[in-house]
C-alpha cells in the first residue's frame, strides 16, 4: 500500500507526456484533438457493436472514445474503461459525469493485471501501445472476451514509405516520453496480436506512420496460445 502511495506521489503511474496536459485539459472534459476524430469513428465502426454489447476500452485515457462507444452500445450496453494513471482516470470520470452516462465506468488499474467482471463483446485499444504491443496485457485481457468478440487497435508505427520515413525519429523520440516499460515503436507494433486474433487485417494512415488493425477473437486459439506459453 505504501509503495502504491509512493508511486502516486512521484507520478510514476502517469506517462511523462501526459503530466502537464492532464491538468491543462481538466476544465475541458469533452476535449479530443479533431484530426483523430475520423480514425476513432472508423475504429469504433470496426468493433461492429450492437445495442446491449459490453465493450472494453483498454488504456482509455481521458475517454476520447467514450461518446462513440456509448452511442454504439446504447443505453442497454456497457462501456468499461481501464486506465493506469489515477490523474488521467479523473479526467475520464469528469467526462462521464459531464455527459451523465450511467453505463460507463473507468477502472483505475493496470491492464496487465486487472481483474474484470464478466465477458466482453469487443475490445478497443486506441493509441494504447502499452497494451496492444504487450504480450502480458493481451494475455490478461483476451480471456475476458467472448468467442468471436471484435478486437481493434489504433496506434503509431515506423514508416517504410519515403514520405513517412522522415517522421520515424520523431516517433522514436515521442516514445521516450512514455513509460520506460512501453514496448518500443517498430514497423509492426501489432505483432503480438497476430497469433492471438483471427483474420487480423491492417490499414496504414498518415504516410504509413499510423495504423488500424482489426480482427476477431478465437478463444480456442488464445487459450491454446496461453497453455503453450
Ligand atoms: C496515448 S493515451 C490514449 C488514451 C485513449 N485511448 C485515447 O484514445 O485518447 C494511452 C493511455 O494508456 C494508459 N496506459 C498505459 N499503460 C497502461 C496499462 N498498462 N494499463 C492501463 N492503461 C495504460 C496511459 O496512462 C494513457 O492514458
How would you summarize what this structure contains?
The protein has 229 residues and is α/β, with parallel strands linked by helices. The protein has helices at 2-9, 21-24, 37-46, 66-73, 86-99, 129-132, 135-141, 162-165, 168-175, 191-194, 219-227, and strands at 54-58, 78-83, 104-108, 120-126, 145-156, 197-205, 210-217. The chain has a single domain, classed as Vaccinia Virus protein VP39 (Rossmann fold), CATH 3.40.50.
Per CATH, the architecture is: 3-Layer(aba) Sandwich
How many helical elements?
Answer: 11
Question: Would you report the number of β strands?
Answer: 7
Q: Give the proportion of residues in helices.
A: 25-40%
| SSE succession | HHHEHEHEEHHEHHHEEH
Q: What is the mean predicted local confidence, pLDDT?
A: 92
What kind of sheet is the major sheet?
Answer: 7 strands, mixed
Q: Which superfamily, in CATH terms, is the homologous superfamily?
A: Vaccinia Virus protein VP39
Global morphology: globular
Strand order of the largest sheet: 3-2-1-4-5-7-6
Low-confidence region ranges: none
Any idea of the CATH class? Alpha Beta
The structural class is alpha/beta
Query: What distance separates the N and C termini?
Result: 31 Å
Bound molecules: S-adenosylmethionine
Amino acid at each position: 500500500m505504501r509503495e502504491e502511495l509512493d508511486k502516486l506521489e512521484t507520478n510514476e503511474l502517469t506517462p511523462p507526456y501526459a503530466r502537464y496536459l492532464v491538468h491543462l485539459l481538466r476544465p475541458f472534459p469533452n476535449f479530443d484533438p479533431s484530426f483523430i476524430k475520423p480514425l476513432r469513428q472508423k475504429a469504433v465502426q470496426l468493433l461492429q457493436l450492437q445495442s446491449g454489447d459490453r465493450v472494453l476500452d483498454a488504456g482509455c485515457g481521458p475517454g476520447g472514445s467514450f461518446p462513440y462507444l456509448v452511442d454504439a452500445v446504447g443505453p442497454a450496453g456497457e462501456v468499461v474503461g481501464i486506465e493506469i494513471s489515477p490523474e488521467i482516470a479523473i479526467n475520464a470520470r469528469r467526462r462521464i459525469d459531464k455527459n451523465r452516462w450511467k453505463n460507463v465506468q473507468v477502472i483505475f488499474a493496470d491492464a496487465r493485471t486487472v481483474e474484470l467482471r464478466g465477458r466482453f463483446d469487443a475490445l478497443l485499444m486506441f493509441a494504447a501501445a502499452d497494451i496492444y504491443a504487450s504480450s502480458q496485457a493481451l494475455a490478461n485481457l483476451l480471456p475476458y472476451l467472448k468467442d468471436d468478440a471484435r478486437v481493434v487497435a489504433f496506434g503509431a508505427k515506423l514508416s517504410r514509405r519515403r514520405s513517412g520515413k522522415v517522421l520515424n525519429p520523431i516517433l522514436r523520440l515521442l516514445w521516450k516520453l512514455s513509460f520506460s516499460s512501453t514496448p518500443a515503436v517498430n514497423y509492426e507494433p501489432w505483432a503480438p496480436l497476430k497469433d492471438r486474433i483471427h483474420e487480423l487485417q491492417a490499414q496504414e494512415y498518415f504516410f504509413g506512420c499510423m495504423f488500424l488493425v482489426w480482427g476477431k477473437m478465437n478463444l480456442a486459439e488464445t487459450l491454446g496460445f496461453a497453455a503453450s506459453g
